[in-house]
Amino acid sequence: MSQPPGPSALRLAAPLLLAALLGGGVAAGVTTAVVDRHDGEVHTTTVIRQAPITGGTGRETVNQGLTAADIYQRYAPGVVYVRSEVVQQTDNPFDPFGGTQRSEATGSGFVIDGQGDILTNNHVIEGARAVTVQFADKKTVRAKVVGKDPSTDLALLNVDPEGLALKPLPLGSSRDVQVGDPTIAIGNPFGLSRTLTTGVVSALQREIQAPNGFAIRDVIQTDAAINPGNSGGPLIDAAGRVIGINSQIETGGAGSQGNVGIGFAVPIDTAKAILAQLKSGEAVQRAYLGVQSITVDGSLDALDLPAKHGALVQRVEANSPADAAGLKAGEIQATLQGTTETVLLGGDIITKFDGKTITSSQQLSQLVSGHRPGDKVKLELVRKDSKQTLEIALGKRPTTLQSG
C-alpha cells in the first residue's frame, strides 16, 4: 500500500472507549459517566494451536519450534491491560458553566524491562488524566506516562517495579520478518484480557496514518485477529520475540467495527530507534522538509514527465522549510489512464537528496527522518525542463500535519 488507507476504513485498534452520560440535570458543572463496564473482572479467551510454530523460511531462530501455548505461558504475564481515565469538556446549551464527561479508554501494553517500562500506543493514553495497568495476577497499579511520540503512535509508561513480578518480553527485529512468517497477537480486545490469536505476516512495508496525520512507514500487516482493545499489545514471532506493536485495523467500511483479517503493527525497530528519547521524557525530535509527494516510476510514463525517477511534489506545507526554499507543488490535475487515481502535474521532481538518488517518495521521507532538525541538505530537482540544486535547512516536525 503506497498511500495511507482512507480514514473511513482504517480504524485505531484501540482504545475501547467506555462512556455513558447519566441524567440530564442542569446543575452547574455536574456531569458523571459510567467508567467501567468490565466490573473489575479479568476475562481470558485463548486460541491455541498446539503444533510447533515454525517459520516458513527455514531460518534458524533461538527458540524455533515453540507452540503458541509455550509462548502464551511464557510471555502473556508480561502483557498488561491499560486503562486511561479521560475527562472531556462538554457543550451543554442549558448549562452556561459547561460540564465535563468522564470516560475510560482501554487498550494493551507490554513490559520491556525489569525497571517497570511498558510500551503501548500513544492513542491509548492520549489526553488521559490518570493511567493504570493491570497485570495477569489482577494487581492494578498507577502508571506514569514517561514519553510519547504521536508521529509513530507510540508511548512509554512506567510503573514502580517494587512488589511486582515483572515479565519482560524479548524484543526482536522487524528487519528479519518475511511474508508468511507466523505471528501471535496477545492483548485485550473488547476488554477480554490477555487474549491470544494467531496468524501470519500478510505483507510488509505498509503505510498507515498516525492520529496526528503523519505517515507511519514499514508497517507489518497480519491476519492474526486484532480488534478494539488490542492497541499497544505485542505482535510476536515464532521464537517468542516482539516484532511489532498492534495499532490499527482495516474494518471494511464504516458500518464495521471488528476484525476482517487485516491488522497493522508498528515495527519494533521503529520503537527501538526512539526508545532512549522516550525514556528521557524529552519530545522526540524529527527532521521536517514539508512536502507531500508521489513516486515517479513506470506507472507515470504516459504523463511524459521531465524525469524518469524521483519524488513528484504534490503539496508544499505552508511555512515549512520546503516553502521557505521555494519548492513548487503541482497545480494541474490529471487522471492516470485506466484508473480513478489523480496526480498534480507541474511541480518539482526531487531526484537527489544530499547526493543520494531518489527512487520513491517513501525513500525521500526515510532520508529526511535520518537527519535532525537544523541539518542542512542539498536537493537536486527538475523543474519543468531545467535542473536545479537547492540547499535547505531542515526544520522540526510539527505536532500535527497541517490541513487545508
Automatic annotation (TrEMBL):
Isomerase in keyword set: no
Gene Ontology biological-process annotations: proteolysis
GO molecular-function terms, A-Z: serine-type endopeptidase activity
Signal peptide: 1-27
InterPro entries xrefs: Chloro_Bact_Ser_Proteases, PDZ, PDZ_sf, Peptidase_S1_PA, Peptidase_S1_PA_chymotrypsin, Peptidase_S1C
Keywords: Hydrolase, Protease, Signal
Residue ranges of domain PDZ in the record: 287-385
Pfam families to which the protein is assigned, alphabetical: PDZ_2, Trypsin_2
Domain of life: Bacteria
Chain coiled-coil ranges: none
Family classification: Belongs to the peptidase S1C family.
Protein name: PDZ domain-containing protein
Organism: Baekduia soli
